Amino acid sequence: MRFLALFLIPLAGFAQRATTFETRSATALENEKIELLTLNNGGAFVSLILKDDAEKMNPMWNPVALARMTKGSARFGDSLGHFLCVDGFGPTSKEEQAAGLQGHGEAHRQPWALAAQSREGKTQQITFKTRLPLVQEGLTRRLELVDGEQVVYVDSTLENELAFDRPINWAEHATIGYPFLAPGKTVVDASVGRCKTRPFENPPGKHRLNSDQPFVYPAAPLIAGGLTDLRVIPDPPDSMDHSGCVFDPARRLGFVTAINLEKRLMLGYLVRREEYPWLQEWMNYSSNLALARGLEFGTQPFDVSRRQTVEMGKLFDTPAFRWLPAKSKIGTRFLMFYTRVPAGFTQVDDVRQEGGELIITDKKSGQTIRLAASLAL
Questions:
Q1: Would the N or C end of the chain have less CB density within 10 A of its end CB?
Q2: Residue 128 in contact with residue 45, Cβ under 8 Å?
Q3: Neighbour count for residue 135 (Cβ, 10 Å)
Q4: Is residue 377 part of a domain?
Q5: How far from the centroid of its chain's Cα atoms is residue 351's Cα?
Q6: Using CA atoms, how far apart are residues 294 and 298, in angstroms rounded to an integer?
Q7: pLDDT tens profile 275-330
Q8: Which of 1-10, 288-297, 347-356, 357-366 has the lowest mean pLDDT?
Q9: Quick one: CA dihedral 226, 228, 234, 235, positive or negative?
Q10: For position 77, what pLDDT does the model report?
Q11: Taking the CA atoms of the chain, what radius of gyration do you get in angstroms?
């Protein structure tokens, strides 16, 4: 019995388990504070909840659940929650299509193998690996979760199997959805300034924003004239727009947050700007409440083809793609957090990491949230 007890201690200390999400196989990573579900096929982060939240509100976009709600069909079969677009973010050329390459890259369509799991002190780690056969690249993603923290640390490595340098497109398609994303109840803040609305080639339709226009976040130009505040979700919703913004070049770390003011819950990301210089916001505000908003940080201002990003080169003096050298690896690191906010906390002016903490500030209310964040970014 004494031997058995010693054997069980490390297993009990590792909180990773197999589960399902919307009938799809997934892996849960959890501690006493939060639980994150990652799909085994495609690697999307599809659920993030606070353990002590009675409602278990998940901020991640779930088009399958929204289709049930609206009695419609799920339009985005391979796309849920926060999924990874690599290598590619946007449509493909006719030649790429003929070769079998689909939009938004291969990573979110490939099986991800659980390659390793471990615990070091208070930190548990799980590592996934997959291969992107058409572009001949290898991808490794490691997730870390520390006991007592509401922060998930995400490290990724992309390896070029070929003997030449290549331009790559990489985006973390982090997307929030209804009911966390709700008209008049959810606000989005980010450490961005210079932005541009996406050019649209078709008639405006349900677009609210003027095509191909520069602006300073959050005051975006309307087709009807004047400006609108992109922080807030329009009420009633009935539009779809897209913008690209540069993370503040004066900051090493950029942030984007979303707060549901009614539930007083906040999802946020802190990213390294040299790896993710751009924030895209896809604002899909359907009148039937099947709402989605992308908080998409990556290497380019819009989800367009590889050719278009290379031809663009730069926007606002910021590169629109990243180089992956021959037979080499490049990496990224970011963190995401989920927390309650106090009454009166209605906006985020700053997120910084110092002294083993995330410090999140609302200057309007004069309030600050401090979350344990012991692993450096």
A1: N
A2: no
A3: 22
A4: no
A5: 16
A6: 12
A7: 999 999 999 999 999 999 999 999 999 999 999 999 999 999 999 999 999 999 99
A8: 1-10
A9: negative
A10: 59
A11: 20
96 occurs within a structural domain: yes
Distance of CA 211 to the CA centre of its chain: 25
Helical residues (DSSP H) of the chain, grouped into ranges: 2-12, 63-70, 94-98, 306-312
Q: If pLDDT is split at 50, 70 and 90, which confidence band does 16 have?
A: confident
How far, in Å, CA of 361 to CA of 371, rounded?
12
Q: For the range 311-316, what are the long-range contacts, defined as Cβ-Cβ under 8 Å and sequence gap of 24 or more?
A: 315/196, 315/244, 315/246, 316/194, 316/196, 316/246
CATH code where residue 208 lies: 2.70.98.10
pLDDT for the residue 201: 75
Distance CA 256, CA 268 (A): 6
Helix, strand or coil for residue 255? strand
73 has pLDDT over 70: no
End-to-end Cα, the chain, rounded Å: 43
Q: What are phi and psi of 308, to 5 degrees?
A: -65, -40
Number of folded domains in the chain? 1
Residue 218 lies in a domain: yes
Phi, psi of 311 (to 5 degrees): -65, -35
pLDDT at 13 over 80: no
What values do phi and psi take at 271, rounded to 5?
A: -130, 155
What is the predicted pLDDT for the residue at 79?
A: 79
The total of other beta-carbon atoms located within 10 Å of residue 38's CB is: 26
Instruction: Please report whether residue 159 resides in a domain.
Output: yes
List the domain range (segments joined by +) for residue 162: 2-372
3-class secondary-structure state, position 10: helix
> In sequence order, which residues have a C-beta less than 8 Å from that of residue 249 and are 6 or more positions away?
273, 318
Counts for the chain of helices (H) and strands (E), in that order = 4, 30
